[in-house]
Amino acid sequence: MNTLLSTPAGSLAVSPLSSNLEGRGYHRSVLEQEQTVHLSLVVPTYNESENVEHLVRTLCALLDDATSGDYELIIVDDDSPDETWRVAQDLTAEFPQLRVMRREHERGLSTAVIRGWQAARGQILGVIDGDLQHPPETLLKLLEAIDKGADLVVASRHVEDGGVSNWSFTRRILSRGAQLLGLMILPNVVGRVTDPMSGYFLVRRRAIVDRELSPMGYKILIEVLGRGDIRHVAEVGYVFQERLEGESKVTWKQYVDYILHLLKLRSRGRISKLRQRLRFPAGRFLRFGVVGLSGVVVDMAMLFLLSDPSMLGWALTRSKILAAETAIVNNFFWNDLWTFGDVARRQRGWTPRLKRFLKFNLVCLMGLILNVLLLNLFFNVLGINRYAANLLAIAIVTVWNFWINLKLSWRVTEVK
Ligand code: GDD
Ligand code: MN
User: Fold this and answer.
1) In ligand 1, which atom is closest to the CA atom of 200?
2) Please, which residues have CB within 8 angstroms of residue 317's CB and are 6 or more apart in sequence?
3) How many other C-beta atoms lie within 10 A of the C-beta of residue 302?
4) Relative to the CA of 25, which of 67, 246, 259, 394 has its CA 20 to 30 Å away?
5) CB of residue 126 inside a 6 A radius of ligand 1
6) Of all atoms in ligand 1, which is nearest to the CA of residue 51?
7) d(CA 103, CA 339)
8) Most distant CA pair in the chain: distance in Å?
9) Residue 2: pLDDT above 70?
10) What is the pLDDT of residues 370-386, one digit of tens each?
11) What values do phi and psi take at 203, rounded to 5?
């Protein structure tokens, strides 16, 4: 029984065929045996144990005939709970062209496909779903189109002979809506194909060689279109079938990933470069924001209790200062424990903590002065409702507070 394919790690770039083998430390004598093949078809699977045998039998029969055996089928399973990888591996004895990869430390459809392509030996790389919703016989038309010179050929539901089986109205709207969004955000990529959501296509290896592919979620085709050297695109119609066994893994997360993916491709790395340049600690800022929100609740509650005519009815500024100080104590506690906990833990003891509290207070008091000035500006000069004015002032002061606290109160001063 063939051993499982080792899972490539690190970069998500596909290497050219020659170095592909040397790159993986094969001994020269093995290289001769490691012949390239015409087609490497990757099948990403997750809990497809009831579909995989039928799929392998159908695909191998079809490709034995169409390519006289000059192909390989690579199943990339993400350590499915139903042990799809084991079912597939048991089939390798009968199907020598079948290779199986069991990924235990990575998850996700798109990266599964790329890891399969990295281990592949084909001049043509392809992907097909493992649940028989992509009709295997369409493969013959895809092969025909790519052998005629296309760099990429996509099985599309939206061209002649294309379609979907009885999809719900919602699913149709979601699919079309996603496509429309793609056309708005990334017209020159998504606009090149009629079915940018397709997960069924073939691409010429040289079109994506050494291109760092970093897809998100499900849409591997957009990544190939966005980063590959794709000149000639062909499309072939197919009807997306009903699933017979198992269920779709598509959740709302895939839709969010899809939008983020489009924006990332549109930024062409500008966003990551900008974050690099700013070294903006987004995660820490998010935590600071959550703590700030708890402070807003404390601030608002105290402002109401102290200044509202139905409660103590104290003067606005006096109430505001007391409300803000209560919120500052609340925020310091949570920031020291959670937002900057990793830094605080390197400066243990009451003295360093007191120092941090005083610095935090100082920064917040400066922020409070700014807050009161802004509150009065928005409320008395611009006539904005007192609570909306307070919220706006707090938002501006939050960014100020975060940045100064990051650079001052919780700066990583190595404790000698
Ligand atoms: N390795 C791996 N890891 N495979 C996965 C994962 C994962 O995290 N999630 C899903 N798969 C596999 C499934 O086992 C199946 O073989 C294939 O990817 C598609 O997953 P489905 O959950 O069935 O997706 P779908 O049917 O709703 O949508 C498919 O078809 C659409 C039209 O072509 C996907 O391919 C979509 O990307 C595509 O738009
Ligand atoms: Mn499916």
Assistant:
1) 33
2) 372
3) 19
4) 67
5) no
6) 16
7) 34
8) 89
9) no
10) 888 999 999 898 889 98
11) -140, 145
| Structure token pair of residue 124 | 């043509």
309 and 256 inside one domain: no
Summarised one tens digit per residue, pLDDT across range 255-268 is: 788 888 888 888 87
Residue that terminates a domain, selected from 277, 298, 322: 277
Ligand 1 centre distance from Cα of residue 255 (Å): 13
Cα–Cα distance measured from residue 288 to residue 401, given in angstroms and rounded to the nearest whole number:
9
Ligand 1: residue whose CA is nearest its atom 24:
248
Q: Report if pTM > 0.85.
A: no
Classify 238 as helix, strand or coil: coil
pLDDT tens digits, residue range 115-160? 999 999 999 999 999 999 999 999 999 999 999 999 999 999 988 8
Residues 136 and 56 in one domain: yes
Question: Which listed ligand is nearest to 55 at the C-alpha?
Answer: 1
Structural domains in the chain (count): 2
Amino acid symbol at 142 = L
- 315 and 266 co-located in one domain: no
> Are residues 246 and 318 both part of a single domain?
no
Q: How many residues does the chain have?
A: 416
Pick the ligand that lies closest to the CA of residue 249. 1
